[in-house]
Design brief:
Layout lengths: L3 E6 L4 H12 L4 E8 L3 H11 L3 E4 L5 H7 L6 E4 L1 H9 L5 E4 L7 H9 L3 E4 L3 H14 L14 E4 L2 H10 L7 E8 L9 H4 L4 H4 L9 H9 L1 H14 L6 E5 L5 E7 L4 E5 L5 H9 L30 H12 L3 H17 L7 H12 L8 H21 L3
C-alpha cells in the first residue's frame, strides 16, 4: 500500500485528532496534506508545526491573521473560509478526505470531494441526514452533467456503528440483508426517569460512560438524537428504509452493530470503544492495519446486554424516525432545529427536555417540501436555524 495524502477536515475535533493519531502511527502509509478547523487556532497551529501539511485552513475568517502569525516561517500555507475548505476537499493532492467537521458545515466539502472523485472517510453524519438524496443521486450519476460524483468517488463510513455494518456486509449480497441492528450505548441518562431528565444540565450530559467525543455529539448521544441521525445515515449508506433498522441499547459498547440476513444468521463487529479502529479501517480499506493498541479481551466482559430504547423518555429518536419517513426537507428541519437546541442546552439556555420540544415544534410548524435541490436544503437550513433561535430567545416552545 503506497503512502496516501490525507485531508482532515475538522482536525482539532475528537475524530480529527484521532485521525492524526493514526497518521502518526503509520507514517509510511499516510501523510497529512490539509488540516482545517472551525476556530481553534492554537491547536491547529500546533498540529501544523508537528505534521507539516501542505496547507491549513481556518473556517472563521476573523482568525486568519492570528493563525498566519503562529505559522509564519513554517512553510505551511494558510487560508481561511468555508469556500477554501470546499476547494481543498476537491484539490488534486489529497487521496482521501476525512470529513470530521461537526454539523451541516460538512455537507459542502463532502459534495466537493465526491465531485472530484475522492474517497470520503465520512464522519459527518449530518451530510447524509440532510442531503442523503442528493449524495445518493450524485454517486449513481443521476444528477445533471457536472453535478455527479467523478469516477472513483466513494464513501467509507467512520462512525463506529456504520463501520461495523460496512464490515459485516463485505463479501455479502446486500439483497440478502434482512435488517440492520444499530447499537446504542444509551448514554449517561439511560436509567433516568422523565422527571429526572427535566432537571439534568449540560455538565451531566457531557459525562459519556464509554466514548470520548466532542460536546455536540456527546449531548446528541445523551438525548439519543445521535442514534436517530445514525439511523437516517444508515438508510442512505446501505440502501434501506427505517423499517429495516432496529435500535438495540447495548450499554457495554462492545458490539458496534449487527446485520441480520434472510437465513437468520446475524453478523456482528466487536471491538473496544476506540474510534481509532474505524478511522484506521476507513483510511486503509480494503486492507487492515496491524496494531497492538487496546485489544478486546472477552473475559473482561462477562455480560453483554441488549434492551429496547424508550422513545417516550427519549423522543428525539422517535422524531428522527418520523422525519426520515416523511422525507424531503423534513430531515433538514430536524437536523437544523436539533443543532440550535443542542447548542442552547450546551450553554444552559434551555433544559434537556426542551431540545425535543423545540425540534418537534419545528417539524410540526415549518412546512417540509419534497425533492429539494441543494440550494433548497441550504435555504431550509438557514430558515429553520433563524426561527429556532427566535423561539429560544422568546422562550416560545
Amino acid at each position: 500500500m503506497s503512502q496516501k495524502k490525507i485531508a482532515v477536515l475538522g482536525s482539532t475535533g475528537s475524530i480529527g485528532t484521532q485521525t492524526l493519531d493514526i497518521i502518526a502511527e503509520y507514517p509510511h502509509l499516510f501523510r497529512a496534506d490539509v488540516l482545517t478547523a472551525r476556530r481553534n487556532v492554537a491547536l491547529l497551529a500546533e498540529q501544523a508545526l508537528r505534521f507539516q501539511p501542505r496547507k491549513v485552513i481556518i473556517a472563521d475568517r476573523s482568525r486568519f491573521g492570528e493563525l498566519s502569525a503562529l505559522l509564519d516561517g513554517s512553510g505551511v500555507k494558510v487560508e481561511a473560509g468555508a469556500e477554501a475548505i470546499a476547494e481543498a476537499a476537491a484539490d488534486n493532492e489529497p487521496d482521501i478526505v476525512v470529513t470530521a467537521m461537526v454539523g451541516f458545515s460538512g455537507m459542502a466539502p463532502t459534495i466537493a470531494a465526491l465531485k472530484a472523485g475522492k474517497r470520503v472517510a465520512l464522519a459527518n453524519k449530518e451530510t447524509l441526514v440532510v442531503g442523503g438524496s442528493i449524495i445518493d443521486a450524485m454517486l449513481k450519476g443521476k444528477l445533471p452533467e457536472g453535478e455527479n460524483a467523478a469516477p472513483g468517488a466513494h464513501i467509507v463510513p467512520v462512525d463506529s456503528e456504520h463501520s461495523a455494518i460496512f464490515q459485516c456486509l463485505v463479501g455479502e449480497d446486500r439483497k440478502r440483508m434482512r435488517k440492520i441492528i444499530l447499537t446504542a450505548s444509551g448514554g449517561p441518562f439511560r436509567k433516568f426517569s422523565r422527571e429526572q431528565l427535566e432537571k439534568v444540565k449540560a455538565a451531566d450530559a457531557l459525562k459519556h460512560p464509554n466514548w470520548d467525543m466532542g460536546a455536540k455529539v456527546t449531548i446528541d448521544s445523551a438525548s439519543m438524537m445521535n442514534k436517530g441521525l445514525e439511523m437516517m445515515e444508515a438508510c442512505w449508506l446501505f440502501g434501506c428504509t427505517p423499517q429495516d433498522i432496529e435500535i438495540a441499547v447495548h450499554p457495554q459498547s462492545i458490539v458496534h452493530s449487527m446485520v441480520e440476513y434472510v437465513d437468520g444468521s446475524v453478523k456482528a463487529q466487536l471491538g473496544m470503544p476506540d474510534m481509532r479502529l474505524p478511522i484506521a479501517y476507513a483510511l486503509s480499506y480494503p486492507d487492515r492495519l496491524p496494531t497492538e493498541r487496546n485489544p478486546l479481551t472477552l473475559p473482561s466482559y462477562a455480560s453483554l446486554t441488549f434492551e429496547a430504547p424508550d422513545m417516550e423518555r427519549f423522543p428525539m429518536l422517535r422524531l428522527a424516525f418520523e422525519a426520515m419517513a416523511e422525507g424531503g426537507t423534513a430531515p433538514c428541519i430536524l437536523n437544523a432545529a436539533n443543532e440550535i437546541a443542542n447548542d442552547a442546552f450546551l450553554h444552559d439556555r434551555i433544559g434537556f427536555m426542551d431540545m425535543p420540544r423545540i425540534t418537534s415544534k419545528a417539524l410540526a410548524e415549518i412546512p417540509a417540501t419534497a425533492n429539494p435541490s441543494i440550494d433548497a436544503l441550504f435555504e431550509t437550513d438557514a430558515e429553520v436555524r433563524s426561527i429556532c433561535r427566535q423561539w429560544i430567545e422568546e422562550h416560545k416552545f
